Amino acid sequence: MTTAADVGDFAKRHGLTVAVAESLTGGNLAAALAAAPDSAQWFRGGVVAYSVTVKQSVLGVPDVPVVSETAALAMAEGVRALTDADIAAATTGVGGPGDQDGEPAGSVWCAVATRDTSWAVHRNFDGEPEQVLEQSVRCALEMLGESEKRFTG
């Protein structure tokens, strides 16, 4: 399991900066990264874009369902460009307890964008809203950790 400290170690080893865009995680991913050792050296910050309007106007999300691959990728790419970070992660989804826009509770998209490429994964998490949120933060941290392979070949 990748931790925020692992992400920090990877960023420091490669001289990279990291940013985040969050919806359902409400700042928890940024808080985890900010609490990691030496985060001031590599963590640029983040945007909590809980409303559709903020996702669109600040992060450049097009007029699509916000719980989608397109939205997650746009969020990651938008915050990466906004902060001039080398790598950015994004989370968007349905924490629950009910459905949203036809998506069931626990439906989550996590995305990562670098200066060269971006990718996203979809997960269906079980549990109460706070459990979905925790699993979503872990998903984003895992994706950031896996992205090291893209920098090291």
TrEMBL record:
Q: Which domain of life is it from?
A: Bacteria
Residue ranges constituting the CinA C-terminal domain according to the UniProt record: 3-146
Protein known as: CinA family protein
Question: What's the source species for this entry?
Answer: Nocardia coubleae
